[in-house]
Automatic annotation (TrEMBL):
SMART domains reported for this sequence: EZ_HEAT (SM00567)
Pfam families: HEAT_2
Classification via InterPro entries: ARM-like (IPR011989), ARM-type_fold (IPR016024), HEAT_type_2 (IPR021133), PBS_lyase_HEAT (IPR004155)
GO molecular function terms attached to this record: lyase activity; oxidoreductase activity
PROSITE patterns xrefs: HEAT_REPEAT
Keywords (A to Z) from UniProt: Lyase
Protein name as annotated: PBS lyase HEAT domain-containing protein
Disordered as annotated region, ranges: 1-35
Bias (Basic and acidic residues) ranges: 18-30
Protein task: Catalyzes the hydroxylation of the N(6)-(4-aminobutyl)-L-lysine intermediate produced by deoxyhypusine synthase/DHPS on a critical lysine of the eukaryotic translation initiation factor 5A/eIF-5A. This is the second step of the post-translational modification of that lysine into an unusual amino acid residue named hypusine. Hypusination is unique to mature eIF-5A factor and is essential for its function.
Protein backbone atom coordinates (compact mmCIF):
# COMPACT_ATOMS: atom_id res chain seq x y z
CA UNK A 1 0.00 0.00 0.00
CA UNK A 2 1.44 3.35 -1.00
CA UNK A 3 1.77 6.24 1.44
CA UNK A 4 -0.95 8.14 -0.43
CA UNK A 5 -3.33 5.15 -0.23
CA UNK A 6 -2.58 4.80 3.47
CA UNK A 7 -3.27 8.48 4.12
CA UNK A 8 -6.48 8.35 2.08
CA UNK A 9 -7.72 5.36 4.09
CA UNK A 10 -6.97 7.17 7.34
CA UNK A 11 -8.97 10.16 6.06
CA UNK A 12 -11.80 7.88 4.94
CA UNK A 13 -11.98 6.44 8.45
CA UNK A 14 -13.56 9.73 9.55
CA UNK A 15 -15.69 10.32 6.44
CA UNK A 16 -19.39 11.17 6.78
CA UNK A 17 -20.32 8.01 4.85
CA UNK A 18 -20.42 4.98 7.20
CA UNK A 19 -19.85 2.56 4.31
CA UNK A 20 -16.66 4.41 3.40
CA UNK A 21 -15.53 4.30 7.05
CA UNK A 22 -16.22 0.55 7.22
CA UNK A 23 -14.31 -0.16 3.99
CA UNK A 24 -11.43 1.96 5.22
CA UNK A 25 -11.26 0.08 8.53
CA UNK A 26 -11.24 -3.22 6.66
CA UNK A 27 -8.44 -2.19 4.30
CA UNK A 28 -6.36 -0.71 7.11
CA UNK A 29 -6.58 -4.03 8.95
CA UNK A 30 -5.45 -5.89 5.84
CA UNK A 31 -2.31 -3.76 5.82
CA UNK A 32 -1.37 -5.26 9.23
CA UNK A 33 0.51 -2.01 9.85
CA UNK A 34 0.85 -1.19 13.58
CA UNK A 35 0.64 2.53 12.71
CA UNK A 36 -3.11 2.15 12.17
CA UNK A 37 -3.83 0.82 15.67
CA UNK A 38 -4.70 4.18 17.24
CA UNK A 39 -7.04 5.31 14.43
CA UNK A 40 -8.78 1.92 14.52
CA UNK A 41 -9.14 2.12 18.30
CA UNK A 42 -10.79 5.52 17.89
CA UNK A 43 -13.09 3.95 15.31
CA UNK A 44 -14.35 1.58 18.03
CA UNK A 45 -16.33 4.62 19.23
CA UNK A 46 -17.99 5.19 15.83
CA UNK A 47 -21.76 5.74 15.78
CA UNK A 48 -22.18 2.94 13.24
CA UNK A 49 -22.05 -0.62 14.64
CA UNK A 50 -20.67 -2.03 11.38
CA UNK A 51 -17.75 0.39 11.52
CA UNK A 52 -17.07 -0.60 15.15
CA UNK A 53 -17.25 -4.31 14.32
CA UNK A 54 -14.99 -3.98 11.28
CA UNK A 55 -12.49 -1.90 13.26
CA UNK A 56 -12.36 -4.57 15.96
CA UNK A 57 -11.83 -7.31 13.37
CA UNK A 58 -9.07 -5.24 11.77
CA UNK A 59 -7.32 -4.78 15.10
CA UNK A 60 -7.46 -8.56 15.49
CA UNK A 61 -5.71 -8.95 12.12
CA UNK A 62 -2.89 -6.65 13.21
CA UNK A 63 -2.16 -9.05 16.03
CA UNK A 64 0.31 -8.70 18.86
CA UNK A 65 1.09 -4.97 18.47
CA UNK A 66 -2.61 -4.25 19.13
CA UNK A 67 -2.79 -6.23 22.39
CA UNK A 68 -1.48 -3.58 24.81
CA UNK A 69 -3.76 -0.75 23.59
CA UNK A 70 -6.75 -3.12 23.60
CA UNK A 71 -6.03 -4.27 27.16
CA UNK A 72 -5.83 -0.61 28.20
CA UNK A 73 -9.31 -0.11 26.74
CA UNK A 74 -10.60 -3.04 28.79
CA UNK A 75 -9.32 -1.37 31.95
CA UNK A 76 -10.47 2.18 31.22
CA UNK A 77 -13.46 2.22 28.87
CA UNK A 78 -17.00 1.05 29.37
CA UNK A 79 -19.81 -0.62 27.48
CA UNK A 80 -19.64 -1.20 23.76
CA UNK A 81 -16.03 -0.11 23.35
CA UNK A 82 -14.91 -2.80 25.80
CA UNK A 83 -17.04 -5.37 24.00
CA UNK A 84 -15.37 -4.59 20.67
CA UNK A 85 -11.91 -4.60 22.27
CA UNK A 86 -12.70 -8.06 23.66
CA UNK A 87 -13.72 -9.21 20.19
CA UNK A 88 -10.42 -7.99 18.75
CA UNK A 89 -8.42 -9.73 21.48
CA UNK A 90 -10.25 -13.00 20.83
CA UNK A 91 -9.32 -12.73 17.15
CA UNK A 92 -5.67 -12.21 18.07
CA UNK A 93 -5.65 -15.31 20.27
CA UNK A 94 -7.21 -17.54 17.59
Amino acid sequence: MSTNDHEQLLNDLTDDDPEKRKESAEKLGESENPDVIEPLIKALEDDNPQVRFTSAKSLGKIGDPAIEPLVTILKNEEGNIRRYATLALKDIKS
